[in-house]
User: Which sequence fits this backbone?
């Protein structure tokens, strides 16, 4: 930490939110830009966070009957063209392979050679290539439902890349399922949206709004798109996961047909759904503070870090031995965690609970105590234990929690800490969730007139141009022209039509026409 | 099974080995070719096998101090060109991205557009792009060793693709490490070769020969390449994993430099090592028989399948309930497994033991008992339990083991089976390994003259043109011209110079010149 300042991250959120985000990523050693335009390098600390996200989501997908498989990276151009809306939606961001070797050019430098008869698109998403395979797998109603997931990299050429949030290449999972009826496919779409919401809230500690997208924000080729939307600390919305009901659109373009029990031939109904490394961006922007990353314990690569303080005139060997035995004792524990009270009664929750050994790091690097403490604060580890001569003598631990100030550390007996570590982690997990939910509630307003809406989204504080107003819950007549006007005037869009919004008589905030339900307006990533 | 035949797979290994391999993959539902030339679709059963391979190897990598990270899919052409031998080695098989969008051409059809100023190669391997990043990460000797692994897809354009063995796109892991001294890097190269050998033998039940590659088979840009080589059932060699000591070649081309403790600046020493989905091809060709796949229990996606036999006049509900409770009882067990006696004293083994819940499938599909039994035989599940009225009444299970004939099934009391299932799985695991080792031993010969060598590799049996002789252990003078002659004459290469070959005076099998050590000659994949 720069001791002349009060925070480890410079600039702070208030000073320059965009730059603060980049600096948190740098200080926590999560990722960095690469030499390839728009492609990021995910560093070990960031990747281990992604591994934890993968482990939990994969468990949830399997608990809901899905199996993993793997499909080609490349999509023949003709496949992309089978679904007109689909290809139109992705045409501007496709990386295209046109050659399959290199050979020496006239000046001796290598140039692409061996031109392909048909160009190959690097998958931006896999509906078309997976659809071609599913057409072979699905013959009869007995083959349905077909519930497949793929963990993969995808490429969408980005003009304004931003690490984790918008990168040319990103890692994700994409679920692709086939059903005999529209109802089954719609249920699947809703089920997976529910899995994403449950994962966001119980594991990432990010409160989300589940809702349907308007036509203009729909996935290219989908009949309907649903998303989970979260409020970041700059009060912009982040679309954190999407689930699409594809109707029979892709079944028709890929010829996914089946014979029903009566022997009739019919097109199937499909869905797709995905979350990506963008989730890490959402996690950073929901919880981090001006001292760096704050990790929800259920996804933290390390739950506890032990920091031996080996000052002069201390019994170094004895302190190290104490730390070693403490680490061993803690590593024998498991951390499962309980959902926050506010969520515990949700009966739609997926019956999957991740349970893993407590992850404990013993930091014996040759560096000053202060330097080490601050490196772990910036990395977001939930609990730090500083262990010096006093702890050794008193059989205690000096506990620092990442959700509290460094000045609020407390001494606990070793036995008490070991007995309560799981509960303390839960307390941090629930505290992060509750804080994020309060933040979202505080910055969400019901707005009923155009004047108020325009005022709400007009920047008030010139010193904080990047901190926005939040979410406006307003009535909308369902017409695209209203969306377009608001987008043009305010750079604000309808993030979603919330699924749990109560039916309510009202009038459209812009047109004054009748409306049955409020939607979420916000600036967004 | 075709009841007119005696085997479930047609053709048999003896009849047509290549086609048998394809048919085993099809019958076990492991993978299939895709619409994209040379790219495969890995189906759920094949992918779950890959997930198990990943889980164990990942555990071994972490137990040896490595961390995972993720680097870009694309490599700028100029990066590939930095290491001359490297780019020469891969130039003929590079997929090249030249455009970043699609737009409507004159006839309205989409064509590539937005030409890149520098073409991007889809990674065939990542030394150059990772090297560029490592140059930033490594500054001082304190940053070393840097031990990184990546799980990723890579693309090497293949003219003669063969599923799992040679595909244009495949999945793999690639380790990349940086060290302060040549000795450290050489030790790492050897350590990871050891991890691969240990994994192959203890988990895949595939005996392997660890050895060094000759110059002609070296990784492009490496100082030395080591591999594990296994004998398939057609007695050809499969290179199943490689570990490269890269010297300072890539450190120089990527400028990976560090200051040593005395403040002197020096180039670092690097290694790389990888295994891929090719391992699945090796597993299939080592263990499978004319009835389909045989899975080593330690990697099997399911250890036990329970098959209720619901014939007429049986108590269906009671049989199902019996099967359900049996499945529950078995799922509460864990399967860890012990190494075969023949391997248990290897002190170089990595201290990692995978331990997982017993994986049990209850097959309640609406199909005949025979159909279901044979589908699991073809899928290679180690233990099948057929449960009918007799088992229900006797509180027994009717046990079929995949390493024995279907006619050799035995009845066991339920309690005895539950108590011994782990030992039975170990027995299968060790039996597969021992059988494969005997097979390799039987078809390995010490050959000391050119005439004998040429005779050994000359096909004898016109009816089995695809079944070869095996491995010849012969002396070699270390000269490339000898290798070339033998390759041209026999299509046989030196697979490796075994690390554990005893030093022994001899004379080169072709040139008669002095030689200190035998090498392995074989036909190969």
Assistant:
């Amino acid at each position: 930490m720069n001791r002349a300042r009060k925070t480890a991250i410079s600039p702070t959120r208030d000073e320059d939110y965009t730059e603060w985000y980049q600096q948190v990523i740098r200080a926590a050693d999560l990722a960095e830009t690469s030499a390839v335009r728009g492609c990021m390098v995910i560093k070990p600390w960031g990747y281990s966070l992604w591994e934890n996200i993968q482990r939990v989501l994969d468990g949830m997908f399997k608990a809901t009957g899905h199996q993993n498989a793997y499909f080609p990276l490349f999509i023949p151009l003709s496949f992309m063209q089978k679904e007109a809306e689909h290809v139109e939606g992705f045409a501007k961001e496709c990386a295209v392979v046109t050659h399959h070797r290199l050979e020496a050019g006239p000046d001796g430098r290598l140039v692409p050679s061996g031109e392909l008869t048909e160009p190959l698109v690097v998958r931006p998403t896999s509906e078309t290539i997976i659809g071609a395979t599913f057409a072979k797998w699905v013959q009869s109603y007995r083959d349905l439902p077909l519930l497949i997931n793929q963990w993969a990299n995808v490429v969408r050429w980005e003009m304004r890349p931003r690490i984790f949030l918008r990168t040319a290449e990103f890692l994700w999972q994409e679920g692709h399922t086939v059903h005999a009826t529209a109802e089954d496919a719609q249920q699947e779409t809703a089920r997976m949206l529910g899995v994403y919401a449950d994962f966001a809230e119980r594991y990432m500690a990010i409160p989300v709004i589940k809702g349907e997208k308007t036509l203009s924000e729909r996935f290219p080729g989908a009949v309907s798109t649903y998303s989970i939307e979260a409020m970041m600390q700059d009060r912009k919305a982040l679309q954190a996961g999407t689930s699409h009901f594809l109707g029979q659109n892709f079944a028709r373009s890929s010829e996914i047909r089946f014979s029903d029990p009566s022997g009739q031939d019919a097109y199937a109904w499909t869905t797709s759904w995905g979350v990506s490394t963008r989730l890490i961006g959402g996690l950073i922007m929901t919880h981090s503070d001006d001292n760096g990353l704050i990790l929800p314990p259920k996804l933290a690569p390390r739950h506890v870090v032990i920091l031996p303080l080996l000052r002069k005139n201390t019994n170094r060997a004895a302190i190290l031995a104490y730390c070693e035995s403490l680490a061993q004792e803690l590593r024998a524990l498991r951390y499962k965690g309980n959902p926050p009270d506010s969520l515990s009664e949700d009966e739609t929750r997926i019956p999957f609970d991740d349970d893993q050994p407590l992850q404990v790091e013993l930091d014996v690097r040759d560096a000053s105590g202060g330097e080490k403490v601050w490196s772990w604060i910036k990395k977001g580890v939930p609990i730090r234990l500083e262990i010096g001569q006093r702890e050794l003598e008193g059989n205690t631990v000096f506990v620092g929690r990442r959700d509290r100030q460094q000045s609020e550390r407390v001494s606990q007996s070793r036995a008490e800490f070991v007995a309560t570590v799981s509960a303390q982690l839960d307390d941090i997990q629930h505290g992060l969730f509750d804080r994020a939910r309060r933040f979202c509630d505080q910055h969400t307003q019901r707005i009923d007139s155009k004047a108020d809406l325009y005022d709400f989204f007009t920047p008030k504080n010139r010193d904080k141009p990047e901190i926005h107003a939040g979410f406006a819950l307003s009535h909308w007549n369902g017409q695209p022209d209203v969306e377009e006007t608001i987008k043009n005037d305010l750079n604000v869009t309808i993030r979603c039509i919330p699924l749990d919004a109560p039916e309510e008589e009202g009038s459209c905030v812009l047109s004054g026409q009748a409306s049955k339900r409020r939607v979420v307006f916000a600036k967004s990533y």
